[in-house]
Amino acid sequence: MCELHELLRHVGTALVTETLDTFDDNTLIAVEAFQRSRGLPITGVVDSTTWTRLVEASWQPGQRLLYLTRPNLRGDDVADLQVHLAQLGFNPGRIDGIFGPILEHALIDFQRNCGIGADGTLTRITLRELTRLTMTTSDRNLVNEARDLAGFDDVASGPLVLCGESPLAALLASAAASSFDVHNLTASFDDEVTRFANAHGAVTVLSIQEVSSLNVIRLHYWASYRAHSRQGEQLASSLATGLSRSEHLPAVEVTGMALTIMRETTMTTLRIEHGDLDASALREFSTTVVEILSEVFHR
């Protein structure tokens, strides 16, 4: 418990408590504040995802060497590196705090341009040069977001991947079969879905969840505390517009979140949450979603 309080303090979450070995109301408020700031479900529960993100948030630039490893290094120091490179015009991929091959390539490119050892490792020398150059460019747009918005990056042409727990998934799979190569992985865990989608270059992933107490439709796209997916936001907004035209479906909310499946998949991934809908509403829901997806990906 003391370690949790230390992590919460380290990441700058306000915490007022005199009992460091107790999970009290103040600890609950601090955990919820951290979850809110990181785009996680606000539960107040320190589950494995929240704990992992807390540990990642404790890493500051310069505390360790950063380089490509397996499994990939993760942390706020990696996200900071991605932002610095993106401000300078070197494309690090999505700002997700994961040190992957795209980030390594961008770092090597930066090192070559600066005439320093181009080994893809963030050493103190590289960090010093990176910080010096970005001091005067902090107001520049991130190159990866500009590429995302302009659609410059390669568009995947693989299958439409469905996952989650909802009767909507089967209806979507049936309705989309004539327009997409559909893979319905509703019985799979998120890590299995991620591996399949990334390995097959999925055109998009829809993670669908029925939440019985929900009286609205929620569409979530990838968004972290540093950046967000503009294509994901556009796709979610297009779906929201189409669904909102129906007189039989609930209101639609669009928000950015940093759910694990969104972070781990390399393509646009949306989370769709809905309440208990009757058969007619579910059919209209699925038909509308497929129509919008076809317009977006086949135009």
Shape label? globular
Number of strands: 6
Mean pLDDT: 91
What do we call the CATH homologous superfamily of the largest domain?
Answer: Zn-dependent exopeptidases
What is the CATH architecture assignment of the largest domain?
A: 3-Layer(aba) Sandwich
Regarding quaternary structure, how should these chains be classified? single chain
The tally of helices reads 12
Secondary-structure-derived class: alpha/beta
Q: Quick one: biggest sheet?
A: 6 strands, mixed
- What is the helix/strand order? HHHHHHHEHEHEEHEHEH
Fold and architecture overview:
This protein is of the alpha/beta class. It folds into three domains: 2-57, no CATH class; 76-150, Muramoyl-pentapeptide Carboxypeptidase, domain 1; 160-298, Zn-dependent exopeptidases (Aminopeptidase, 3-Layer(aba) Sandwich), CATH 3.40.630. Helix content is 46%, strand content 11%. It has a six-stranded mixed sheet, with helices on both faces. The mean pLDDT is 91.
